[in-house]
């Protein structure tokens, strides 16, 4: 599977450079591949953080595709890259594996220290048949970053089978990425294997670089259940003391 990621990433870089001067590099790229055919979409000046493709216009191998991707580069309280609201329809009778990768550059916020955490989230619904897949986010300070390069977030595995079955998986790699003032990229790589004739809708798929919560905040939040129990106990005690004493 790692070898497949590397091939898809290499195809994305190669196709993204076709017809472009060597010094020009897209700030935002969506790549769709079935392992044999690969299509790459680059952002345009009017919408530098968004790429959308219509279902009727995209046919990759045996898969009909509708896909949307976006980022919030240069970031803010968090940095995010997403591939969401996309549909895959396997038009063949045999299983097909599909890869979606998104790369966004130019992030400057949030910054370290402290080291940033990478949060991965993926969810979707299988209309019929069976779907299995993986999802992983990445962060990279290299000027030559590609989708899937750099510091890896948690690898997520998902599956669903039957009619209108949904799934949702998330995970985090805590305090793993330190840009230290450098501009950085975020990317995601998602693989989806569909049984013959299956249709899949990806609801959410994103990676976020976030500032970890201070330990003092986490300590306070962890103490809330205890504080609540103490408060409730004291309230019951005060209520009992306030009850009037029955007359003899």
Count up the helices. 2
| Main sheet makeup | 7 strands, antiparallel
SSE pattern: HEEEEEEEEEEEEEEH
Overall mean confidence score, pLDDT: 78
Q: How many β-strand stretches?
A: 14
Descriptive account of the structure:
With 248 residues, the protein is α+β, with helices and mostly antiparallel strands. It has one domain. The protein has helices spanning 2-17, 215-242, and strands at 28-33, 38-42, 50-53, 59-60, 63-71, 78-90, 96-107, 116-128, 130-140, 151-152, 156-161, 165-177, 184-194, 199-210. Strands 1, 2, 7, 9, 10, 11 and 13 form a 7-stranded antiparallel sheet that branches. A hairpin with a 2-residue loop joins strand 4 and strand 5 (63-71). It is globular.
Observed structural traits:
alpha+beta, seven-stranded antiparallel sheet, 14 strands, disordered N terminus
Record the SSE blueprint.
Blueprint: H1 2-17, E1 28-33, E2 38-42, E3 50-53, E4 59-60, E5 63-71, E6 78-90, E7 96-107, E8 116-128, E9 130-140, E10 151-152, E11 156-161, E12 165-177, E13 184-194, E14 199-210, H2 215-242
Antiparallel strand pairs: 1-2, 1-7, 3-5, 4-5, 5-6, 6-14, 7-13, 8-12, 8-14, 9-10, 9-11, 9-13
């Amino acid at each position: 599977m790692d070898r497949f990621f590397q091939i898809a990433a290499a195809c994305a870089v190669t196709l993204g450079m076709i017809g472009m001067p060597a010094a020009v590099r897209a700030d935002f790229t969506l790549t769709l591949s079935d392992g044999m055919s690969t299509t790459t979409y680059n952002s345009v000046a009017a919408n530098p953080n968004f790429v959308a493709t219509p279902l009727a216009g995209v046919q990759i191998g045996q898969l009909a595709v509708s896909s949307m991707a976006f980022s919030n580069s240069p970031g803010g309280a968090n940095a995010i890259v997403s591939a969401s609201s996309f549909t895959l329809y396997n038009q063949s009778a045999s299983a097909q594996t599909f890869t979606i990768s998104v790369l966004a550059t130019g992030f400057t916020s949030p910054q370290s220290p402290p080291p940033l955490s990478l949060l991965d989230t993926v969810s979707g619904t299988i209309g019929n048949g069976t779907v299995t897949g993986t999802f992983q986010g990445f962060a990279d300070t290299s000027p030559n970053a590609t989708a899937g390069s750099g510091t890896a977030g948690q690898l997520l595995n998902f599956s669903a089978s039957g009619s209108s079955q949904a799934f949702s998986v998330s995970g985090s790699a805590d305090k793993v990425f330190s840009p230290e003032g450098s501009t950085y990229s975020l990317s995601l790589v998602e693989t989806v294997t569909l049984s013959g004739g299956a249709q899949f809708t990806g609801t959410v798929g994103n990676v976020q670089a976030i500032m970890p919560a201070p330990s003092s905040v986490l300590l306070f939040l962890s103490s809330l259940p205890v504080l609540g129990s103490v408060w409730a106990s004291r309230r019951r005690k005060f209520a009992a003391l306030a009850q009037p004493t029955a007359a003899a």
